Amino acid sequence: MKATAEGILAGNLRSLAKAITLVESRLPDHRAEARALLSRLRRSGRQALRLGLTGTPGSGKSTFIERFGLMLADQGQRVAVLAVDPSSALSGGSILGDKTRMENLSRHPNAFIRPSPSQSAVGGVSQRTRDAVGLCEAAGFDIVIIETVGVGQTETQVEQMSDIFILLLAPAGGDALQGVKRGVIELADLVLVNKCDGDLASNARQAAAEYSAALKLFRKRERDPEGFPKTMLVSARDGIGLEACLQEIQALAMWRRDSGHWTDNRARQAVSWFESEVDAGMLAGLEEISGIAKLRADLADRVGEGAVDPDEAAQKLLAGFRTYIESRDRASALETDVSGIQTPGIRGRK
Amino acid sequence: MKATAEGILAGNLRSLAKAITLVESRLPDHRAEARALLSRLRRSGRQALRLGLTGTPGSGKSTFIERFGLMLADQGQRVAVLAVDPSSALSGGSILGDKTRMENLSRHPNAFIRPSPSQSAVGGVSQRTRDAVGLCEAAGFDIVIIETVGVGQTETQVEQMSDIFILLLAPAGGDALQGVKRGVIELADLVLVNKCDGDLASNARQAAAEYSAALKLFRKRERDPEGFPKTMLVSARDGIGLEACLQEIQALAMWRRDSGHWTDNRARQAVSWFESEVDAGMLAGLEEISGIAKLRADLADRVGEGAVDPDEAAQKLLAGFRTYIESRDRASALETDVSGIQTPGIRGRK
Questions:
Q1: What ipTM, to 2 d.p.?
Q2: Given A127, A288, A346, which is nearest B308 (Cβ)?
Q3: Partner residue facing A127 (CB), from B275, B277, B311
Q4: pLDDT-derived band of residue A82, with 50, 70 and 90 as boundaries?
Q5: Nearest-neighbour CA in chain B from A325: distance (Å)
Q6: What is the CB-side half-sphere exposure of residue A186 using CA atoms within 13 A?
Q7: A72's torsion region: left (phi>0), alpha (psi -120 to 50) or beta?
Q8: What is the pTM of this model?
Q9: Which of A158, A177, B48, B194 places its Cα 20 to 30 Å from the Cα of A92?
């Protein structure tokens, strides 16, 4: 493990790839090893600019990342691309697919491309992606692009591990726009309308005007300087607007760093990650108590049929749960548990 | 209680008011009595059209409800207005305030106005409002308007107990629009731009065009017929557009009834209410286990400071929690708990 850690800190891509495979493993031994590695690497204190990116199907994400990534790489910046791909959990990885769809970028010495299978298992939904981001930061990457294809809750999870979140859209052929999933437009710092080229140029300008107007309808967030969230026109195919887009990203990143929002945002993300993992883990743990899960499912069915009032059903279930908790001999057992949790492993690293 | 139930079923407003006071009480005895009353009244099977209404401050909610409610009441429809008012939890109720701000409606024989204090206590956040809606339905009201001033999560909760959700907006004096809280615009079935009168008429038309364009950017929901969500112009002050607004509400309600979305929506709301109450109640119950809450808060602080990785902190806490769950002698105690939950009180009412 020491060799892997040293390799990563030296920027060795083979060590990085090996470590990502380790954090993706579900074997308990591997998980423990992964945690130890991540913990050791965190001491480097290295941070990259984390760019979250999502887009409607057909918006040209691959072309955009390829061109945008090449521009950065050619400037001497080291770029990692992590693609959160739900399908790869089934196919066992789509590394070749990703390398094919971003062929030139994948061959660039400053670039690293890797799919990150998303999972529906509790706690594993995107923890592995988050771990992979941390590994890329330790390996000295300047920019980590976290791409999501926008299935399920992945956009929100990716936003929760990004410093800046980008929504990529394409104007449709006619006057109809690609509908954006509810909730997603509000996460965006930048809305990029792609394919501002050829026949679609005027559609793209129209779409950009509409998104720009729509963004003004929302209440301002504290972490947004004047003019953000912002809508911009790009053509990934023709390389138009990419430089301007980078400048806006850098300006926003600088403003957030200077104003303290960058640090606040990362702290807020970490705490909210912790809280939601604890909530999900505890609820999953309770489901394993024999009887609770089945009773809960039965009650939910009856509530859905209109046979029982939801509040009444919830109170019945919770009354049983409280009895379970209260009947436990806390004095003897829990004190031990809790003291067991407060290991020097945590306390010692203040 | 029998007298109260009969009074409510006969449409007696004094009985209704008394029952709402009962469901609002936090005393355990009152709560049990309230549940029994609600359970008895549910058998009536009466349903009202539940209209959720929220709006930016200064959008003219009171004037709108007064005029819209009077129009309905004059048509012979019985209208109940429940105002979810966070401030009334502090002031101990703002009944006079509500009656003053909707003076004519409050005196109409077909109308009933009542504030419903919102609460931050787990399980009580808006359960009491939900109970009050059920009481109004049993009392034979045709329409129940649930108004929220839009503090915290109240809009989402009100949407979760509404058949149709309305967002009321006012154009600002200049070209700036009132910003809408993120997430709220996506809940709306109807966006009403109010104050389309006098000096603000052209601003209102402009605002309506912008919201109408913005609504088209979102992906369509299954429960929306063609043309919905819809933006409309109204002037509550001058009574303009209220009749058209009612027609749209009725058309939407009819479409949803005929297509089955009405029933599906109520079933979905009930199940999701049950699930979130169970989750919140269980998590609150776990917080009461000595040690867990404090350790969790301590870990969250350290995660926020960047001293511990969120995932690592969560796993440590969850490991302790699992030990706690597993160390329990389930075989003896839980079976009893679970069988105790499945009372004939639930099973018997299929």
A1: 0.76
A2: A346
A3: B311
A4: very high
A5: 8
A6: 18
A7: alpha
A8: 0.82
A9: A158
